[in-house]
Amino acid sequence: MFTGLVQYLGSINSIAHEPPGVRLAVHAGPLAQGVRIGDSICTNGCCLSVVQTDGETLEFQLGPETIQRTNFGTCKAADSINLERSLTLQDRLDGHLVTGHIDGLGILEDRIQEKDWVTCRFTCPKNLLAQLAAKGSVAVDGVSLTVVDVNETSFSVALIPHTLSHTTLGELAVGDEVNLETDLISKYVCRWLEARS
Q1: pLDDT tens for residues 56-102?
Q2: What is the dihedral of CA 162, 167, 171, 174, to 10 degrees?
Q3: How far apart are the C-alpha atoms of 144 and 190, rounded to whole Å?
């Protein structure tokens, strides 16, 4: 379980083919300190298990399902990547509950610069839009954000300067794919309503 508050903006060292998946090596800086094999790291919003550590480098194995359902299929060496270690029971929950299980991909449709702020509008599948609400929470590439508005095809979020400079969201360009995780509570409410009907 995670909060959606990025702790370190890392970078991809390498992506090596390891059929049927790939091995992802990430420079995690000080976040790597004390990380053990088997630990869960939220990596661009996706919960991945550490399979090897080497100083400030963490390695993960990604299977076909992960590659297909996330934006890792388009990532390349030197790309920036959002990193967050898993919560402990003593931690504050300053963002929202993020599981690290990606629900689908969104595409940046529009990016509006407003002085130091940016408003981003993302398109995504309709089943995910049904789980979003204005002033509700969404994780975009692992970043906990508040939804500004939702329409039939897209939703928007407002990014403050800190988020733009400390996460990958500051580098997004129109057409880029992002990993999306909708709010956990909203997911269960939607499932309950489906089951009732």
Answers
A1: 999 999 999 999 999 999 999 999 999 999 998 888 888 899 999 99
A2: -100
A3: 20
**Into which CATH architecture does domain 104-196 fall?**
Beta Barrel (2.40)
Cα 169–Cα 125–Cα 131 angle in degrees, nearest 5 = 85
Looking at beta carbons, which pairs linking 114-117 to residues 24 or more positions away fall under 8 Å? 116/160, 116/161, 116/164, 117/158, 117/159, 117/160, 117/161
Does the pLDDT at position 186 exceed 90?
no
Q: Is 100 left (phi over 0), alpha (psi -120 to 50) or beta?
A: left
Per-residue pLDDT at 133 exceeds 90? yes
Separation between Cα atoms, residue 40 and residue 43, nearest integer Å: 9
Structure pTM?
0.95
With beta carbons less than 8 A apart as the criterion, state whether 164 and 170 touch.
yes
Q: Assign domain 8-85 one CATH number from 1.10.10.2840, 2.40.30.20, 3.40.50.620, 2.40.170.20.
A: 2.40.30.20
Secondary structure letter of residue 87 according to DSSP: P
